[in-house]
Design brief:
- It is a single chain.
- With 702 residues, this protein is an alpha+beta fold.
- The chain contains 25 helices and 20 strands.
- The strands form 4 sheets. Strands 2-1-5-4-3 form a 5-stranded antiparallel β-sheet, sandwiched between helices. The chain has a 5-stranded antiparallel β-sheet with strand order 7-6-10-9-8, with helices on both faces. Strands 12-11-15-14-13 form a 5-stranded antiparallel β-sheet, with helices on both faces.
- β11 and β12 form a beta hairpin.
- The longest helix is centred in the last third of the chain and has 35 residues, at 493-527.
- The two termini are 31 Å apart.
């Protein structure tokens, strides 16, 4: 990279950059870093790096600098906190690389600074809770418990005591930790703290119900108020153990591949500044985001046509003209099929020597999922009401078969417009004729014999004549001094329909998987034609080595997907660097070394059933800690990444590159043999060499 190109990247402003002396004084800093810290460039150049660093994080910087000055390392990467001019704390990721004189002394350090501060939005709308219908609460066939602000039990109902042998009267005033499965405890503690801040939470959790038994609960937790302050939490837990068991078998395959169908959420573009706007260039991700078959097809579209509302385009242009850049501009965008999605737009105006805007460079992220989650949180606040009357489970109490209580959920389930439509009627009026004998036996079991009626599936008749599938449990209680039965039932119609849909869609999801992974892996090859086929060859080779090492089919499949996507982070590397027909400069190589972290950032929102993001992040790590981005050693690197690291090197050395010809299989095998146990895992190298020695594998590039 020449000086002019470096200056352009330095001032492009998509990441903070600074040049620093060995004494930690600023030589230069780009505008992006100045804006990030709230200083003008003149003010910032008068500062030293320690002046901007949080005192608690300064020591780690000084240790890294000492290692650079001693010649032990040439660069480092770390995360710490910087102090904004106004006193705010900014969390950043810093990657630094030094330049040295021929005698080894340090000239300066180039630091790349990325703001990683996560913004959190507090969710409002707090619901006041109070105790109603204590008899029903005490005998509900779901767990109900109350905690004080310290997380100690204030109240739990009989069902909670029956379900968990870890809960008894002696537990009142004690914490909930021994009741929760250890693997879920940290998450439940976080949810408890969040509820104390006034939020309503719905979640699933495992609890210990016996010495070696575990139950799964669907829990809704609400804040409890006293004098306007939160003084504890109230939780409802429905036992979904059997339901989860039946669903897992059907959903296992679907969940494995569902996340692979999501779009990669980062698009890159260059466009003109006019209201209509023209695309000068777009990457494949952006084209797919808007439904175009290729970037070439999208180039012919007008920028304004991608906006759901043209006023959003006008506001965007106005802001760019005033400020020169915009970050995190959330807008509704429109695909070519008419559907829309939420995007977060960041862009910067590129100026000529006279200060006129030449074009705009920008990045677009699909944030539809985040918006959906926020909307779901708002909707959940409306769905759930106080205690029993707003409990999502339908609850009915009847005395000698006559309904004396029905909560709102039960009224909705049978299409009753008001309580009077149900109260005073016989429970048999709502039971399908095919199930009335069964219900009669269960009433006898419940009321006369005083036994809990286990959950079964029945059919209820709605007031509009339609039938609905329900799961029903019943328990004998005393209601207003009379023997009664409390019936809890859930509408399982959607679940049954969902099971049918899962079965019918599974085959189609399997067929779509391979095409989806191929499309993702092609994103890099589109920008770097010299490595076309590299990821597929690496994936094929890696799977053969993994089989030779007797890895499980599950691990091999995860390794295959990670291998196909291991260079996805290169979509963030300038194309002229990827295809440069010469040896890279130090700065260019530092940019290349960001691709594992960039790959993780691209893939982290996709919930793979395998550790794909971790494998992609670690595939350039080496056994002796000399790799990047985090300098991991030995077994700190996951086994799949150690396999990928070896086969990636072998395939690359056997392939032609624009700056060198193929070094051949012999040189490649000499490389991994020489560095066996130093750079590369011994077992992986042994398996690789055995395959070639026994002529059971041949690279397509050789």
């Amino acid at each position: 990279m020449n000086e002019k190109q470096f200056d352009r990247y330095f001032e492009l402003g998509l990441i903070g950059m600074a040049i620093i002396t060995p004494e930690m004084c600023f030589i230069d800093a780009n505008n992006y870093l100045c804006d990030m810290l709230g200083y003008s460039k003149e003010e910032l150049l008068k500062k030293k790096w320690p002046d901007l660093t949080h005192p608690d994080d300064l020591d780690i910087h000084l240790k890294a600098l000492t290692r650079i000055l001693s010649g032990e390392i040439d660069g480092y990467r770390l995360e710490n906190r910087l102090i904004h001019k106004n006193g705010d704390i900014i969390h950043v990721s810093i990657a630094s690389k030094c330049s040295r004189k021929p005698d080894g002394s340090v000239i300066n350090l180039l630091s790349l600074v990325q703001d990683i501060t996560e913004r959190k939005k507090a969710e409002e709308s707090i619901r006041e809770s109070e105790h109603k219908y204590r008899t029903v609460v005490e005998n509900a066939r779901e767990m109900i418990w109350q905690l004080d602000r310290e997380g100690n039990f204030v109240f739990f109902n009989k069902y909670a005591e029956e379900l968990s042998s870890n809960i008894s009267d002696e537990w009142k005033g004690k914490g909930f930790s021994p009741v929760v499965h250890p693997d879920d405890l940290d998450r439940v503690k976080d949810i408890f703290v969040d509820t104390l801040s006034g939020n309503i939470n719905e979640y699933e959790v495992r609890i210990l119900v016996g010495e070696n038994e575990i139950a799964e609960l669907k829990v809704q937790t609400l804040p409890i108020y006293a004098d306007g302050e939160v003084n504890g939490t109230l939780s409802f837990g429905r036992d979904i153990t059997e339901e989860k068991k039946s669903e897992r078998a059907l959903k296992a395959s679907e969940e494995r591949y569902r996340s692979l169908l999501a779009n990669i959420p980062v698009g890159v573009f260059r466009s003109t500044i006019e209201q209509d706007g023209s695309f000068l260039s777009v990457n494949p991700v952006l084209a797919r985001m808007f439904g175009f078959e290729s970037p070439e097809k999208m180039i012919n579209a007008k920028v304004v046509d991608c906006y759901q509302n043209i006023e959003d385009r006008r506001r965007f242009i106005s802001s760019i003209r005033r400020k020169g850049s915009i970050s995190g501009y959330e807008v509704h965008f429109k695909r070519i099929d008419g559907s829309n999605f939420w995007g977060s737009l960041s862009s910067k105006a590129i100026l000529d020597e006279e200060g006129r805007i030449l074009y705009l460079d920008g990045i677009l992220e699909d944030i539809t999922e985040r918006k959906s989650i926020q909307e779901a949180l708002r909707e959940s606040q409306e769905r759930y009401r106080r205690l029993l009357d707003h409990n999502p489970a339908a609850i009915v109490v009847h005395v000698d078969g006559v309904i004396v209580y029905a909560n709102r959920a039960s009224l909705d389930l049978v299409a009753a417009s008001c309580p009077e439509d149900a109260l005073g009627k016989r429970i048999f009026d709502f039971v399908h004729p095919d199930y009335r004998d069964i219900v009669l036996d269960r009433i006898k079991l419940c009321q006369k014999d005083g036994k809990f009626a286990e959950p079964i599936e029945e059919k209820f008749l709605r007031l509009d004549g339609k039938s609905v599938d329900v799961e029903v449990t019943a328990i004998p209680i005393t209601y207003q001094g009379q023997p009664a039965s409390q019936v809890v039932f859930w509408d399982v119609t959607d679940r049954k329909q969902a099971e049918d849909r899962i079965k019918s869609n599974l085959e189609e999801l399997h067929r779509t998987l391979e095409g989806t992974v191929d499309a993702l892996s092609s994103a890099v090859e589109t920008r770097d034609p010299y490595t076309a086929g590299h990821q597929k060859e690496v994936a094929r080779f890696a799977c053969v080595v993994a089989k030779e090492m007797n890895l499980s089919e599950e691990m091999i499949e995860g390794l295959r997907v990670a291998s196909l996507l291991h260079d996805i982070g290169k979509i963030k590397i300038p194309a002229e660097i990827l295809s440069k027909p010469a040896v890279l400069t130090d700065i260019e190589y530092e940019l290349i070394k960001t691709h594992p972290q960039a790959g993780l950032e691209i893939l982290k929102t996709i919930s793979f059933p395998w550790p794909v993001g971790k494998i992609v992040l670690q595939h350039q790590e080496r056994i002796d800690g000399s790799g990047y981005p985090n300098g991991l050693k030995g077994e700190e690197i996951c086994l799949e990444a150690r396999i990928l690291g070896v086969v990636d090197v072998v395939e690359a050395m056997c392939s032609h590159r624009p700056y060198r010809s193929s070094r051949g299989k012999k040189k490649a095998l000499e490389e991994i043999t020489k560095n066996r146990g130093v750079l590369y895992d011994k077992n992986v190298v042994d398996a690789c060499l055995k395959l070639f020695r026994e002529e059971r594998y041949c690279l397509s590039t050789t």
